[in-house]
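User: Good morning. I'm curious how iron/sulfur cluster would be positioned relative to this chain. Could you predict the structure with it bound?
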Amino acid sequence: MKYQIKIAQKAGFCPGVKNAFLKSYKIAENHKNTCIYGEMVHNNFALIPIYQKGIVLKKTLDEIINDKNIENVIIRAHGIPPNEEELLKNNGKKIFDLTCPKVKKVQLLAKKLSDEGYTVIIFGKENHPEVLGIKGYCNENTVVIKEFDDLKKTNIDINTKLALISQTTMNSIEFNKISDKLKNSYSNISFFNTLCDFPIKIQDNSIEIAKEVDLMIVVGDKKSANTQSLFDKLTSVKKTIFVETENDIIIEEIRSFQKIGLTGGTSTSQLQIDSIKKYLEKNL
Ligand code: SF4
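Assistant: Good morning! Here's the predicted structure, ligand included:
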């Protein structure tokens, strides 16, 4: 049987992550004793080149500050709170800020709203690094909600001006639902759609491909919420499997599918997708 393998056009690293990876390689070439504060993406495979270039992973501020060998700190695309950046600088660390420009915009918007007296409602995941970073730009009148009912658990002052913003990678349908409910409940609220459209583009493009093929393969790390959500969406359109590496592929089980589509979330490297394509071409 002649197999056709198609890669979704937008599959893999988003511009923010791609830019951060490329810049971190350059930083590693020119600066020894460099660490990255937190994993660049939730994808062990994609992180290998970073560590091969000599960048070490540090998961906490204390680890960085207490390690006298570390001179340079890379801030990943998610960004960090400004007080943490300050602390690193005060401890003599040189900062390479690779915060995605779109995330930086949200951080600065959050700060502006907060400075103007708004209570900032962040639609996002409480402990997600991007949310922690954005929250750090606001004063204490800030709450994080994952759904409308979460607001009831907070003690926000509804007499202040309210503003809704979002973690960049949240679901747009949920954002609109929450906005509608807030609109019906509060008159003094402003809305700022700060979602990034790139994950949606990957999703739409992957769904188009899924309609043309017999089997979809999502490539990425199963820890990545973003890639998992892409997988969930695709399963409702076409038979889909989720693989991290070629070891997850049972070739006999996919031989009956002539047209195969490949995709990956914003944390999946193009290299990873290409390596699966090559593996299929060689083994089918
Ligand atoms: S998903 Fe969007 S906001 Fe997040 S890092 Fe990628 S480009 Fe930036």
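The first strand starts at residue 4 and ends at 7. Residues 4-12+198-283 form a domain with the Cobalt-precorrin-4 Transmethylase; domain 1 fold (CATH 3.40.1010.20).
Let me know if you'd like a different ligand tried.
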